[in-house]
Amino acid sequence: QLIAGNEAYAPSGLSLGEHEPQLEAAMREALEPTEVGSLVVRGVYDRVFWLFTHPELKGALAEKFGEITNA
């Protein structure tokens, strides 16, 4: 089963497989396209290269990046 509302756009026989429930859950909590667009426009005007749609994840990203750079 595909994400509700997008079935008409999918190629025949397409299935998202075992990750489908997680993807559907993520999509229910995803930002609206207009929110992402506003974030991008602000980033362009403010000359910000890295845009975080979920700032609460910055700590985890910093930790992971530290692991990578310290490897």
Comma- or semicolon-separated keywords:
about 70 residues; mainly alpha; about 50% helix; about 0% strand
Main beta sheet strand tally, sense and closure: none
Radius of gyration of CA atoms, rounded to a whole number = 17 Å
Q: In total, how many beta strands?
A: 0
Which word captures the global form? extended
Mean pLDDT: 80
**What's the total helix number?**
3
Terminal CA distance reads: 40 Å
Structural class: mainly alpha
Structure in words:
- It is built from 3 helices and no strands.
- It is extended.
- The chain has helices spanning 20-28, 33-46, 58-69.
- The relative contact order is 0.08.
- The chain has 71 residues and is mainly α.
Secondary structure blueprint with pairings:
Elements: H1 20-28, H2 33-46, H3 58-69
Précis, in short:
This protein is mostly helical.
